[in-house]
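Hey, sorry to bother you again with one of my protein questions. There's a protein on my desk that I can't quite get my head around. No rush at all, and the record is pasted right below.
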Amino acid sequence: MYQALIFDLDGLLIDSETIYRKISYKMAADLGKQLHDGIWVKQMGRSPIESLRIFHDELGITTHTVQELVDLRNVLLLDGFRNELQIMPGALEIIRAFHGRMRMTIATGSPRLLMDLAIAQLGLAGYFEYMLPSDEIVSGKPDPEIYLKTIQALGLYPDECIVLEDSSNGALSGHRAGCYVIAVPSDYTRNQDFSFANHVAEDLFEARLLIEEL
């Protein structure tokens, strides 16, 4: 029944949220603002422009536009991805387990420059037939656009696709697109609402077993 796996990237396949968090706190401090996790959690799973709009508005930043904050963060993230990026536990195992058995794609809230860097850095390029970043869609997660476009590119129906997400916003996006959603919360997202997911897995190892059963 299921033909394709659609993976989120940040916090699911790569441990980028640690880098995002450190950079967000540094940016706030450099701007004379005090960030707290309540704001940072709101940013998770969203497109860069939407994420930094929350950062901008919640902290009352007047010295930079939202786009200037996006550009500033991208510079810092590129350096962080090159030097600190790690793959999540179970990511290689689940990718290798289904490579050649199911079609695999990525639908990420990251822009293309960060997505391409992460995929190249970790040697994952040969596994995915299609990858859609946030700067090639109009509305970011939790809007379903990114998943609907990915499904359309594959020539499949939503009920033929399994979405794997670590954030509530991402899982809701996959749910709204009509896919089977497996939430795999990270340490940063375990307290988020995943009530609309079809299954909440402890980690990618459990998610792999679940997909085998499906």
